[in-house]
């Protein structure tokens, strides 16, 4: 799927209602991809290695960012040849299913001086523990916020005219998704996540992947996921390669859908990710509401939304504290790494993935 006219940014994992949820295994199962799994400790140069690979590529590269530190990379994906280099350590541990054939391990553990690290064992263990505790605190905040937002969605569902919604979804498919002779396929990516910088959305990726944008304005996040679920199936049945973007908090629902071959995106707009682009097609999901039942519970729904907003803010603060502790942890490891060996591995990967591609 050579859809990139420029470098794009995504997440591939984030903390949601049930803790960290990642899609690294789904990436590993995309047809034809060659996976390179980096195994190393913190501060060993994983993100730097991936940035150097990206900078060396003459073609656009897909950047996979870390939701715990968006300035750091969890992966880079090359389109030609189709290959990915990813951080395969916790919390997105990925082990090779077909070693050598479909996945290759890039081991950086040998670049560490264990004697230096052992001498600082107490401080290192304490920092690992603090990072874990802070991330767990952030996860609890996000989980509680997710429950409140789910209450909003469930309150709105009975109000929807589902038959009308389905007919409208089918008309959208007829208008925007002509039949092809292709075989449908899907990639899973996250366009947004709760991070130490707050709720981040990669709007630049929307601009790169889609000149045509159909925006579903849905304050309750009830109608849009149903429309997108139906459009997703239409797109696959009609032979398109698609990029599905689940909600980072509720992975079972879809937030956005890209069809790169058509330069098209179907996007959800709400208070968490407002979509505002030139010449976008706007669809207001209030058109699917059968009655004004929701006005009787607006006070509760408003409370839920404000409480969820504050909880997600507190989650970001906990992630900021975790990042600070992780930065301290990285400093210990950086003092024990032989970075010249990491540079040699980087040069070898550039030769393999880019120069000889």
DSSP strand tally? 16
Number of domains: 2
Q: Give a quick account of the main beta sheet: strands, pairing sense, barrel closure.
A: 6 strands, mixed
Low-confidence stretches: none
Q: Determine the structural class based on helices, strands and strand pairing.
A: alpha/beta
The SSE string, one letter per element, is: EEEHEHEEEEHHHEEEHEHEEEEHH
Helix content: 40-55%
Radius of gyration: 22 Å
Quote the distance from N terminus to C terminus: 16 Å
Strand content: 15-25%
Could you describe the 3D structure shown?
The chain has 357 residues and is of the alpha/beta class. It folds into 2 domains: 8-112 and 338-355, no CATH class; 161-288, no CATH class. The protein has helices at 24-28, 46-56, 114-119, 121-156, 162-176, 203-209, 223-237, 298-334, 339-355; strands spanning 8-11, 13-16, 19-22, 34-39, 61-66, 69-78, 83-87, 103-107, 185-188, 192-195, 198-201, 212-217, 241-246, 254-259, 264-269, 281-284. The strands form 4 sheets. A 6-stranded mixed sheet has the order 1-5-6-7-4-8. The protein has a 6-stranded mixed sheet with strand order 9-13-14-15-12-16, with helices on one face. A hairpin with a 7-residue loop joins strand 13 and strand 14 (254-259). Helix 2 (46-56) packs parallel to helix 9 (339-355) and helix 5 (162-176) packs across helix 7 (223-237). It starts with 7 loop residues before the first strand and ends with a helix.
């Amino acid at each position: 799927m050579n859809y990139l006219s420029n470098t794009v940014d995504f997440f591939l994992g984030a903390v949601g209602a049930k803790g960290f949820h990642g899609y690294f295994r789904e990436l590993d199962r995309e047809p034809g991809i060659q996976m390179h799994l980096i195994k190393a400790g913190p501060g060993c140069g994983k993100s730097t290695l991936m940035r150097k690979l990206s900078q060396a590529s003459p073609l656009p590269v897909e950047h996979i960012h870390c939701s715990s530190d968006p300035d750091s990379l969890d992966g880079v994906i090359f389109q030609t040849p189709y290959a990915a280099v990813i951080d395969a350590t916790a919390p997105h541990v990925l082990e090779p299913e077909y070693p050598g054939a479909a996945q290759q391990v890039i081991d950086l553990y040998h670049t560490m001086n264990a004697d230096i690290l052992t001498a600082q064992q107490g401080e290192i263990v304490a920092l690992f523990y603090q990072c874990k505790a802070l991330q767990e605190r952030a996860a609890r905040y996000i989980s509680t916020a997710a429950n409140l937002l789910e209450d909003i969605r469930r309150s709105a569902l009975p109000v929807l005219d589902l038959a009308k919604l389905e007919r409208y979804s089918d008309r959208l498919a007829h208008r925007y998704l002509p039949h092809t002779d292709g075989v449908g396929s899907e990639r899973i990516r996250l366009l947004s996540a709760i991070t130490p910088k707050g709720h981040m959305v990669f709007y630049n990726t929307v601009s790169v992947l889609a000149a045509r944008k159909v925006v579903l304005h849905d304050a309750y996040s009830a109608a849009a996921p149903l429309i997108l679920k139906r459009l997703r199936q239409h797109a696959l049945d009609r032979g398109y390669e698609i990029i599905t973007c689940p909600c980072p908090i509720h992975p079972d629902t879809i937030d956005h859908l890209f069809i790169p071959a058509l330069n098209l995106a179907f996007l959800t707009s709400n208070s968490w990710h407002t979509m505002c682009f030139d010449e976008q097609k706007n669809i207001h999901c209030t058109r699917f509401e059968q009655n004004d039942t929701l006005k009787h519970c607006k006070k509760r729904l408003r409370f839920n939304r404000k409480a969820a907003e504050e909880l997600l803010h507190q989650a970001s603060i906990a992630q900021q504290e975790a990042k600070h502790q992780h930065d301290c942890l990285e400093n210990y490891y950086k003092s024990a790494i032989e970075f010249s060996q990491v540079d040699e591995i980087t040069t070898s990967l550039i030769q393999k993935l880019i120069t000889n591609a």
